[in-house]
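ok so for the tutorial part 2 we go from a plain amino acid sequence to predicted structure tokens. step 1 is just haveing the sequence, like this:
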Amino acid sequence: MTAWWKLSRVPFLSVGILPLILGFILAWRFGYKGPLGLYVLSTMAVILIMWMTYYMGEWNDLEGDRINQNFNRFSGGSRILVKEVLPAWSSLLLGYGCLTGAILIGFYIYLQYQTDFRALLLGGMGIFFGFFYSGKPFRWSYHGLGEILIGFCYGWLPIATGFFLFTGFFSPQILLLSIPVGLSIFNVILINEFPDEEADRAIGKKNLVVRFGKERMGDLYIGLSILTGFSFIKMMWRSGQVSLWLLFLSAVPTLLILWNLIQVWRGNYHDHKKLELLCRNTLFVNLSMTILLTIQQTLLLSFGGRSG
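step 2 — the prediction. this is what the tokens look like for a chain of 308 residues:
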């Protein structure tokens, strides 16, 4: 069970589930709710898609993980296959099992709840981008496209899916909410590539850090962090109805962003321990912002009822 937990990266499912819930809450603000089963099944489908991506990534990245000596808790894979705690084929089998389950749930939702066909396309995009994130022939993460797709698939896509399933249309609010979420998860992936640079370069994995180097990608990280902070603060201050305590809590991700900026500016990503803290705090920025935006939308629902 412990090996499966680590291989499945259960805590990291939060980066996809939380934006989906944010989409649910936004739909409620527009006056749309649905049956409990639809919430449960759509959440299960998102989890299966994430698991498929994780399991297939463990299989496809095994060569690099084996030679990686600079990994930390947030990079370099789960190490379960590297240590041979489980056979490598088990990850491949689990990946295809989750792929099958996600497809079946998607079609069941479409047929049982008579959802718009575009809902299938949203799920299909998640499956397509996730399966080929590390898989041939596209291998997005090996060609400098993986970071962008992660920003999309863990930013706009789950928020839009959670919203569209119950409303049948898209709203500009989806994009506004997805900007800080998408930018912050982009930075999560970007900084997690720093400790893996040597191993990735050795196997020909040409992600952004390998292509352009840590210094230039450190500059990109700083720029995106500033944009993340501004977009988040703008979203949190959009309505005067939000309570002061929530605005006070908004200082948490803001201060984390500031701390991260200082660390990268000083080049502390060259220090293994400080880099691991940087990876952790970048993840906390994403999670805390998504949670606070969800709380904000919930409060706006209770204050103002329908939106739009």
